[in-house]
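Reposting from the mailing list since nobody answered there.

I have sequence plus structure tokens for a pair of proteins and want to know whether others read the tokens the same way I do. The first protein:
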Amino acid sequence: MNEDRVAQTFVGRAIFITGGSGFLGKVLIEKLLRVCPDIKKIFLLMRTKKGKDPKQRLLDIFSNPLFDGLKETHGLEMLMDKCQVIGGDVTLADLGISSEDRQTLIDEVSIIYHCAATIRFDETLKKAILLNTRGTKLMIQLAKDCKHLAMFCHVSTAYCHLHEKHLLEKSYDPPANPHKVINCVEWLDESVVDAMTDKILGNLPNTYAFTKALGEGLVVETMDDLPSVILRPSIVIPIYQDPLPGWTDNINGPTGLLIGAGKGVIRTMYCDSDGYGDYLPVDIAVNCMLLATWNFIENNDRSRRIYNVTSSAEIKVSWNQVIEMGREIVTTKVPLNGVLWYPGGSMKNNRLYHNFCMIFYHFVPAIFLDALLFCLGYKPILIRVHKRILKGFQVFEYYANNQWDFDNSNVQYLRTVINKKEKELYKIDAEDLDMMAYFENCIKAARIYILNEAEDTLPAARRHMRIMWWVDKICKHIIMGICLYYVALYFYNVIFDDETPQDLLQKAIET
């Protein structure tokens, strides 16, 4: 009852991971190295990027604070010895892997985690298909050749079958024939595919949902002759507990909203404030991957092949609650440096009202401050920032104003078959979850690891926030006073002097 049976599953095994340089991939690698020290080898598919070869990129990954605990315990040499880079690219034919490396994978690998994907919702259709769909097809072909394959795990998304308002843990038909779509985009120019994108997507809002649904369809096709499992995580957010609470390497999802609002840049959003998103801490997703692997291999459980790794069946946190918690944290507990305006604003249920507020609260101040920066000899930046925010809103609004629910019976089943020690090591529940404390850790970590704001700057940030609070209050009172004055003046003159609004405007100009 006190044995870690999950770790035993990986003893002496060689693992192949795609997407190891991504957010989920980094946490997966760290977890495997920490709890499964007797793992034989972790092969990582990586490409040359920004002039750095795959080996240098691996060193960069291990330089991340996420791996500090492992380096202190085992040393960098052990990490480099356990991990071997395979040069390649999911978007290339045969994954861009050399014949020698491919043969090594075929001879040694027994577990594959296919995590590589583009998560850009505005990615061009051709690029998204080559990576998310054809890349999955090529990974399946490699998996079929592996001599000792025990499991092929495909990381999909809970948001790939958007027509299903209640997603069950079962397979669904893809929106198109994935083989025909792949063949089509392979020989068409990107400009032609771009011109056809809206027609091809149909009712789907973006290329991400479309291509991930196609990729999942390819895996489902091969379930009869391939030991495959599909995991559908929802909105993956920073680490909950293990090993570095709040850690993230990006500003996607709620973290970006909290930072934008905390800096005083985001002051309005078009969103159903009572709606909720399905958030999943990345360490919970990784723990579920490892437990699903153990259940599939050691328990030989072939009845559970698809897992909705989601949270909303148990915890529903509205968008408004996220914003209110974030506002309290960044104003009273963990303020950010360089705040432009006191965090405020709200979510709007009316698009016209939201657009009006966006013009006056986002773009007008941005134009004014950019003009001031230009006059002072600095490069204007705020208009560019707000254009990016506007682009992000276009994606966010679809998901924020629609609602989905997810059945996660298979994930809940895993909780019933693990012992006390495994429950602690591979936490996949939220029994002691404190949302306020969690988001506070998220903002603290984002402050340090994303914004590079040292902890010793907190006292100055708190003083600055108090000043911004007074400035905000004074400005609001001045504006309210001016408005009330002219409203009162208008009614007084209309009632007693019968003056027209044009007369009042002329007097105001003269004053």
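The second protein, same order (residues first, tokens after):
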Amino acid sequence: MRTKSFASKLLLSLLALTASSASADELLSPIKPATATSQKEKICAIYPHLKDSYWLSVNYGMISEAEKLQVELRVLEAGGYPNIGKQASQLVLCTQWGADAIILGTVSPDAYHDNLTDWVGSTPVFATVNELTLSKEQQKVLKGTVGVDWYKMGFQVGEYLAKLHPKGSGETPIALLLGPQASGGTKPVALGFYDAIKDSDVKIDVSYWADNDKELQRNLVQQVIEQAHVKYIVGSAVAVEAAISELRAADKTDEIGLISSYLSHGTYRGLLRNKVLFAPTDKMVEQGRLSVKQAVSYLRDQPYEMHSAPKIEALTPATLKDQIIADSLSPSEFRPVFSVNP
């Protein structure tokens, strides 16, 4: 049972959010309180967004695992990485719903560094995909994490290019379009990429940063094609998907190579058709499954690994394997699912 002081904190927090970043409509969730007779474990999952197939694939993994393990699951998404206030309000909604555990894909590593318990109280939290950094005091509610080291993802991308263009082979200019500059996994990806290319002839000609929104990334790709003279576009899957069609329209498909910092349905099709040269995968479907397994194991007092991470796989048109793709991408017909109540 939640304490009176915690309830007061939630009320004050909700009032502050209503005044600043979340409307009253946003705070009134369609989620209905569970009945007193419900015996199933109740898990609430929160994503930064469902704008691209990356988080769609995480969603598929979670939904399929929740169905398999016979637990109740509710899914919320914040609508984008800038929406810290909205995501914080969703943490509150999860506690109001009575979640036994919360799986959090944070919009920013430091978003809840000093105040996670203000939003969730004592509800156990499991970080998924994105790094969640917490103060020592706040770590008491963090019971598990799932996710790869995004530095290694970026390093693999840079290493692929560096091997193609080693020192002395001739300067090779590229455009870097990795997504939002300070959110999600973009920063560690960029650091890994920079380190991998530092002793090569790969040179970053332009770097543009924006949320992983299709139109925002399309605009950046058009800007690169019109203004820059580059041999490659290295970008998020959203940017690379946009670049496939934009390069075709500009008749520059054979002039500019495309390299993605992670896998998506669109970049997978690009690999199949030799339109994309390289993409690492951190197996998004598997990550979704692992997160639900962690939470359920905790709630059922079963042993589990506090940190789980799939093996990062490097994909080229010549190295596509069915099982790796199945662990990475949701089926083509899958659409977002926001609740499981077996």
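Reply #1 (J.P.):
I read it the same way you do. The mean pLDDT is 89.
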